[in-house]
């Protein structure tokens, strides 16, 4: 186990322009606080964040960026077209969704190629026409009364798993 000073000494020396290997894609966001939390998780695991061009999103990201350094954020236009382009470019598209045939989070392999983690709307999930663009769906098992987690928590768990850090 590394000491704190060893971990600090091994930190990245400069900010990245784009990690590119893993992209978190909350394409139908409902709460700005979730975007800020996901931005922090993206930094922690070396991922980028893809968000739609909505008027309130830049302010939510600025407020959520408590690290106060430039983070890797991609603004998308139409979410469906953006997802289709990601697939066409060879990225694996994984949706966090309760769906028939979804794999359990524990069985999700680490990303070895460019991967997009699609996160749906807090209430309605990933739209049906976007589900058709997924290569696979992953579900997060729950034993409590709820059936879903909020987007920031679910996205963070999936990003850590995809990054191979858990």
UniProtKB/TrEMBL annotation:
<dbReference type="GO" id="GO:0008168">
    <property type="term" value="F:methyltransferase activity"/>
</dbReference>
<dbReference type="Pfam" id="PF00588">
    <property type="entry name" value="SpoU_methylase"/>
</dbReference>
<keyword id="KW-0489">Methyltransferase</keyword>
<keyword id="KW-0808">Transferase</keyword>
<dbReference type="InterPro" id="IPR029028">
    <property type="entry name" value="Alpha/beta_knot_MTases"/>
</dbReference>
<dbReference type="InterPro" id="IPR001537">
    <property type="entry name" value="SpoU_MeTrfase"/>
</dbReference>
<dbReference type="InterPro" id="IPR029026">
    <property type="entry name" value="tRNA_m1G_MTases_N"/>
</dbReference>
<feature type="domain" description="tRNA/rRNA methyltransferase SpoU type">
    <location>
        <begin position="31"/>
        <end position="160"/>
    </location>
</feature>
<protein>
    <submittedName>
        <fullName>TrmH family RNA methyltransferase</fullName>
    </submittedName>
</protein>
<dbReference type="GO" id="GO:0032259">
    <property type="term" value="P:methylation"/>
</dbReference>
<dbReference type="InterPro" id="IPR051259">
    <property type="entry name" value="rRNA_Methyltransferase"/>
</dbReference>
């Amino acid at each position: 186990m590394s000491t704190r000073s060893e971990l600090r000494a091994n930190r990245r020396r400069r900010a990245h322009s784009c990690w590119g290997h893993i992209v978190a894609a909350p394409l139908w966001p409902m709460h700005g606080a979730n975007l800020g939390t996901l931005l922090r998780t993206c930094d922690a695991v070396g991922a980028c964040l893809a968000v739609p061009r909505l008027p309130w999103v830049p302010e939510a990201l600025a407020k959520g960026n408590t690290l106060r350094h430039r983070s890797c954020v991609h603004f998308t236009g139409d979410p469906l077209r953006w997802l289709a382009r990601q697939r066409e470019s060879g990225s694996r598209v994984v949706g966090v969704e309760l769906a028939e045939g979804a794999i359990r989070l524990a069985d999700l392999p680490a990303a070895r190629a460019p991967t997009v983690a699609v996160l749906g709307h807090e209430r309605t999930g990933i739209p049906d026409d976007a589900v058709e663009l997924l290569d696979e769906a992953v579900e997060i098992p729950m034993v409590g009364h709820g059936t879903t987690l909020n987007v920031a928590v679910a996205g963070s768990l999936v990003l850590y798993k995809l990054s191979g850090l858990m």
